[in-house]
Amino acid sequence: MSIRKRLIITSKDQNPDSGNDLLSEKADSGVFSKIFGGASGVSDVRLSLRSLVFGLALLTGLIGFLVFQTFFATAGPQVESLNKPSVSTQSAKNGKTQFFLGIDTSDFDIRVDVLDQTRRLDALLTSIGFTPETVVDLLEEARKKDIETLEKGHEVQIFTAKDGRKERSVLWYKISPDRLAEIKGAPFPQVNIHMLNSYTKVRAAGGIIKTSLWEAVLDRGIHYQMLDRINEALKWSVDLYHLDVGDKFKLVYDENWVENELISVGKLHAVYLETDGKEYFAYLIDNISEPGYYDKVGKPVRRTFLKAPLQYGRISSYFSAERLHPILGDVRSHGGTDYAAPTGTPILAVADGEVLVESENPNNGMFVKIRHDQIYQTQYLHMSRFAEGLQAGARVKQGQVIGYVGQTGLATGPHVCYRFSKNGVEIDPLKENIDQPVILTLEEKDRFYETRDSFAPILRRIVYFKEI
Ligand SMILES: [Zn+2]
Fold first, then answer.
1. What domain range includes position 325?
2. What is the arithmetic mean of pLDDT over 414-440?
3. Is residue 362 part of a domain?
4. Is 47 exposed, middle or buried (0-12, 13-18, 19+ CB in 10 A)?
5. Distance separating alpha carbons of residues 278 and 261, to the nearest angstrom
6. What separation in Å is there between the alpha carbon of 431 and the centre of ligand 1?
7. Each residue of 80-97: pLDDT tens digit?
8. What separation, in Å, do the N-terminal and C-terminal C-alpha atoms of the chain show?
9. Cα(364) to centroid of ligand 1, in Å?
């Protein structure tokens, strides 16, 4: 039986008047997060509160009330909601006493244990110091509430009274993200289930790129899970790995909260990107037959070809008619686009097609050639290995992993040389614009307008922060 001690919070404040026998609807967000903080982004959010929020606007919109905020020079990603948590946040008057679900935490030493395989509730209760009679009563209560079995790997928070009275101990067990069990011995043995308030907040944020989009997004306190959604919405239109300093982005998206803890991010409703003097919009329309992101006139952003054969990587050499070959030393054209990435980075088929060649030669190293249709073919060079089971004749889907970055053949470092040919001639895929218009029905078009017109004003009102 092992107990892993993870966190101890003690307070110098002693307040003998605040017992643990009254259940009041009070909790302090800070304490809650410290105790149940976990891996959510909420700590990131708090950490980046170097600043103040200047603007806050409330909108009535698509999904009832939307709450959004604007980000300024010093604005941190504080979030507000109209849906008050059922267990509200409240700090005590002296600013030091902290309540956790009605309990004055300054009265207790708090430790967080992780249940191991052999841990049983009765043993746990006994180890806390409850009397055998109390343990029997608590087990009976726990059975009634259906929590007599505690799952391994779950955390149990144990509050031990600083006055040494063991019966005052309280044990917290998070049954699920939104249900918390409270097991206490005083003033009488009882097991209470607290329903934690789960709700969705719509959040708006914007930023200016200093190094990369990814850093700028994280810098604004936006949950890292949003990166994939941004990528999905914009990768078809923009080379997200080659944005410039000063490029700007704006987002409107959902965050899923339980009490004061950010659990995950939800939909990315709208995204805007300004780069190279152009503006890009993508709106998520999911109540139609071809759900996905659509641009500001209702054309799908999704294209026949991915913008790049890697999800993460940077362009190290562009397609060009002439360049000095780094190894051979002579001037020759570069019929591909090189994406530098660590060896082993997955290489993706940019479109559906059939594998024509899966082979190796001294120049290309290990490479794959795919025919997409009568007109277009693509090649991927210098792989360290092929994807398992991939061979000539195989059908591949867009985004399917076909191999991994390496530096086989003529290569000075790990990269994939991506070659795109049209009617047998190598061309620059970044300049080829092939999209497949999806025709929305009249009814779907209406849904598009409705969504776009709800979020476009929000996007417009997001203010960028300014660096001083
Ligand atoms: Zn190349």
1. 314-431
2. 84
3. yes
4. exposed
5. 37
6. 17
7. 322 223 332 333 334 455
8. 55
9. 9
Percent of the chain scoring above 90 in pLDDT? 44
Give the Å distance between the CA of 335 and the centre of ligand 1.
7
Q: How many domains does the chain have?
A: 1
CA distance 80 to 75: 14
CA of 419 to the centre of ligand 1 (A): 8
How close is the Cα of 25 to the center of ligand 1, in Å? 64
Cα 418 to middle of ligand 1, angstroms: 7
The percentage of residues in the chain with a pLDDT greater than 70, rounded to a whole number, is 73
Domain annotation covers residue 63: no
Say whether pLDDT at 318 is over 70: yes
Q: Please state the pTM of the whole predicted model.
A: 0.55
How many angstroms is it from 214 CA to the middle of ligand 1? 26
Block residue for tokens 């009535």: 60
User: What separation in Å is there between the alpha carbon of 367 and the centre of ligand 1?
Assistant: 12
Residue 357, domain CATH: 2.70.70.10
Residue 33 structure tokens: 């997060």
- Element of type H or E holding 454: helix 442-461
Distance CA 297, CA 50 (A): 38
Whether 349 is in a domain gets the answer yes
204 CA from centroid of ligand 1 (Å): 40
In a domain, 359, yes or no: yes
